[in-house]
């Protein structure tokens, strides 16, 4: 157990590793990652040096949205294992000193969830139907949806049921939004929080945390902003769907549940809100921490990165008792090695550029992977030296680029579904491809664009199932160039991304014992193109991190260079490089 993890407030300065379970490690050979697969890699995660793992949903699901369509919140998808497997994984993780965080999806259930099935069966006006957001339609016979809202995944946000009513779904139609004005929903989710806490879970990641409270009554539905679903960022709390003030009542209620446990359970909210509202979710009377997505949204640009850092630090200062979070990648955004290797355009258009690049199978712009990798190395060191918690997405420690050219007919993500014929959106599968663990089962050379592997899985699945038959292919195809990123290849290479992550994490744990408090972090003015800051180091000296975004080398201050993301010679810091220094 790391010294950090022995503290009750371990989460304030934690490194949390996000596991996307269906693509992490397959233990039984069905081509889908599973819980036993996670257990088998706890040693790897311990060696990496993470404090906690967060598992994206592993609950029973029809996978209409990668598991975020939950059929039963208090069970394990039988394809991924059993509750016994879960308990075993928690035990092994805890023995390794690693905390476990599970994902709670409270904005919507799956349409197959028993509460939604009861709502359908009970009919209009029933107490069961009141647990979701059902409305009558417009038009003479109610044949039109209550309004023209478009769901975030495309297509209408309302779905009609056989008795004529319509239900709201902000995401896929298999994800009906629940009605948080109904007390049964409150009880249901508190039961779920206690269930996983009783199974040893240390904390929760709260999906779409800013969406639960809705006001669909004050204004007639057909007079509401037609783009209310898309208009998520609202400064004045007036959106009918997002970031409403009442959402905080829910989290204050949950805090009482978290505090029933010793140590109190931790939570981090996924809230895509304006930066000045983030701290409301992160209040220690509520969730305790919130994702700051500014890094995930910034391209490799000194101004964008600087303002991302300042926004994160400011949001933490506004929250008494909480810390900030840093996230470069997750299961919803293209991998940052690729983002940083694409042409760097203003932040406002970078998102669109990445989408366009994906749409054209990675051919519309040149992806400079070498440059992207160099920048990603500099970025993780810049990030890990900062106060607060860092969230690492599985495979980023291997420096995996995005798989941009998954064939359309192999995509699983619902976001391309509505657009396949029109080819306007390729979706999020390129960062969800099963991880490459072992290069030895794939004989092909590691060439770019050599196509996808067949009959081998880079050790993602075992060669055979328990009955001796061959394992199924991984559920998303792995490109042959994955070979050079396989964990065994990187393990053997001192200069690999994996070994940089390991060293950075271990130095962070020993050099920076701070609590994640922003007050001990001071910006250093080293010129416009350099992001530099100092913090106290554990040995009483001052720790400093310098990142050079500019083309001219930068003179470093006197001190002991403890780590560099690239070549540093003669006290000069080259472009796209970070160093950690203990100052003289
Ligand atoms: C969150 C998840 C995303 C999912 C959505 C709906 O944004 O991160 O993957 O599609 O919620 O649950």
Automatic annotation (TrEMBL):
One of its GO terms (biological process) is oligosaccharide catabolic process. It comes from the Bacteria. InterPro entries: GH (IPR017853), GH13_cat_dom (IPR006047), O16G_dom_2 (IPR045857). Residues 18-432 form the Glycosyl hydrolase family 13 catalytic domain. Coiled coil: none annotated. Belongs to the glycosyl hydrolase 13 family. This is DUF3459 domain-containing protein. It comes from Bifidobacterium aerophilum. The lineage of its organism: Bacteria, Bacillati, Actinomycetota, Actinomycetes, Bifidobacteriales.
């Amino acid at each position: 157990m790391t010294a950090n993890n022995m503290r009750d407030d371990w989460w304030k300065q934690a490194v949390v590793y996000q596991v996307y379970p269906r693509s992490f490690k397959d233990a039984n050979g069905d081509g889908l990652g599973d819980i036993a697969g996670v257990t088998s890699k706890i040693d790897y995660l311990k060696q990496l040096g993470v404090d906690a793992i967060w598992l994206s949903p592993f609950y029973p699901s029809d996978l209409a949205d990668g598991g975020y369509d939950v059929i039963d919140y208090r069970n394990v998808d039988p394809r991924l294992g059993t509750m016994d497997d879960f308990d075993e994984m928690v035990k092994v993780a805890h023995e390794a000193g690693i905390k476990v965080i599970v994902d709670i999806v409270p904005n919507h259930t799956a349409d197959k969830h028993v509460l939604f099935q009861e709502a359908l069966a009970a009919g209009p006006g029933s107490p069961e139907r009141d647990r979701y957001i059902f409305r009558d339609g417009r038009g003479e016979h109610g044949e039109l949806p209550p309004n023209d809202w478009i769901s975030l995944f495309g297509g209408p946000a309302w779905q009609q049921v056989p008795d004529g009513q319509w239900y709201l779904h902000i995401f896929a139609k298999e994800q009906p939004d629940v009605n948080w004005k109904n007390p049964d929903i409150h009880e249901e989710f508190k039961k779920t929080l206690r269930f996983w806490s009783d199974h040893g879970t240390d904390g929760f990641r709260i999906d779409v945390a800013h969406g639960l409270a809705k006001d669909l009554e004050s204004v007639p539905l057909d007079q509401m902003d037609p783009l209310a679903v898309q208009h998520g960022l609202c400064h004045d709390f007036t959106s009918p769907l997002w970031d409403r003030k009442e959402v905080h009542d829910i989290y204050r209620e949950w805090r009482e549940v978290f505090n029933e446990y010793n140590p109190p359970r931790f939570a981090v909210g996924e809230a895509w809100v304006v930066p000045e509202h983030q701290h409301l979710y992160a209040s220690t009377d509520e969730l305790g921490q919130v994702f700051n997505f500014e890094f995930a949204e910034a391209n490799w640009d000194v101004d964008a990165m600087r303002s991302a850092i300042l926004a994160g630090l400011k949001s933490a200062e506004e929250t008494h008792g909480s810390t900030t979070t840093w996230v470069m990648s997750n299961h919803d955004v293209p991998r940052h090695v690729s983002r940083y290797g694409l042409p760097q355009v203003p932040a406002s258009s970078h998102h669109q550029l990445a989408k366009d690049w994906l749409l054209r199978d990675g051919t519309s712009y040149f992806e400079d992977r070498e440059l992207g990798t160099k920048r990603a190395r500099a970025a993780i060191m810049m990030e890990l030296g900062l106060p607060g918690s860092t969230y690492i997405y599985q495979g980023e420690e291997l420096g995996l680029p995005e798989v941009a050219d998954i064939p359309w007919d192999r995509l699983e993500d619902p976001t391309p579904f509505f657009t396949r014929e029109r080819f306007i959106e390729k979706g999020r599968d390129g960062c969800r491809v099963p991880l490459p663990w072992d290069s030895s089962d794939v004989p092909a050379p590691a060439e770019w664009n050599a196509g996808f592997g067949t009959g081998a899985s880079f050790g993602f699945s075992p060669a055979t199932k328990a009955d001796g038959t061959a394992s199924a292919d991984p559920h998303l195809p792995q490109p042959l160039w994955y070979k050079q990123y396989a964990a065994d290849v990187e393990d053997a290479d001192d200069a690999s991304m994996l070994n940089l992550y390991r060293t950075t994490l271990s130095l962070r744990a020993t050099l920076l014992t701070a609590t994640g408090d922003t007050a001990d972090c001071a910006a250093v003015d080293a010129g416009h193109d350099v992001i530099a800051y100092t913090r106290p180091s554990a040995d009483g000296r001052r720790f400093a991190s310098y990142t050079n975004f500019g083309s001219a080398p930068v003179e470093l201050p006197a001190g002991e260079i403890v780590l560099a993301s690239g070549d540093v010679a003669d006290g000069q810091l080259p472009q796209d490089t970070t160093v950690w220094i203990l100052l003289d």
